[in-house]
Amino acid sequence: MGQRGRKPIPRAGARASSPFGALPRCPSHLSEVARKEWRRLATPLHEAGILTLADRAALAAFCQAWARWVEAEEKLKETPMLIRTPSGYAQQSPWLSIANKQLELMGRYMSELGLTPVARERLPADMVQTSEPLTIVRVLFQGSDGKRRDKDGDVVEEDTGNGLRVTRNLM
After folding, report:
1. How many domains does the chain have?
2. CA-CA distance, 22 to 52, in Å (whole number)?
3. Same domain, yes or no, for 42 and 95?
4. CA distances, 51 to each of 16, 108, 113, 130, 154 (Å)
5. Range list of β-strands (E), 30-145
6. Are 33 and 70 in contact (CB under 8 A)?
């Protein structure tokens, strides 16, 4: 019997250049809560080189498990953890079972999609953001070219995933 090692992680470059490199669309069958979670995660995961068209089902499954977990947790706020059956026995709330199962499913998908600190440590270095210090400048104007510039005329771009990023020497 062979030894089990770490799960293989695809290289960012290989994924970005593949035909699966486009940002997948949110599936229409997802619930509203699941679609909100999709909108929160899809673009940052795609920009990090983790999410491709081939991963659509995995993210959809995670988002739907998230929505079901949220619903079960809300119901648990309204109902007791233990309920009495008609015969008088104490029984665990079905909502607790649902919450626990969805949390278990979410954990599997979080690992696969790099949504936990440990999962992100497994990502190749070229998929993880550099540790260069972030320089924050005050944006003073937006030029006719649509680029935002600071008081010195340096171009400043808004990084949709992680705040502000200064881009130097583009003038």
Report:
1. 2
2. 6
3. yes
4. 9, 16, 8, 19, 32
5. 82-84, 90-92, 141-142
6. yes
Give the end-to-end CA distance of the chain in Å, rounded to a whole number: 60
Q: Find the length of the chain.
A: 171
> Residues 35, 87: one domain?
yes
Q: How far apart (Å, rounded) are the C-alpha atoms in residues 35 and 27?
A: 8
pLDDT digits (tens, 9 = 90+) for 150-169: 555 666 554 444 444 444 43
DSSP state of 45: H
Going by C-alpha positions, the residue among 6, 112, 21, 116 that lies closest to residue 60 is 112
Q: For residue 27, which of 48, 17, 42, 44 has the smallest C-alpha distance? A: 42
The CA angle 49-37-96, to the nearest 5 degrees, is: 125
Q: How far apart are CA 24 and CA 69, in angstroms?
A: 23
- Domain boundaries, position 146: 129-171
List pLDDT tens digits, range 30-63: 999 999 999 999 999 998 888 999 999 999 999 9
From residue 86, give the alpha-carbon distance in Å to each of 78, 95, 111, 141.
20, 18, 41, 69
Helix, strand, coil distribution of the chain in percent, nearest 5 = 45, 10, 45
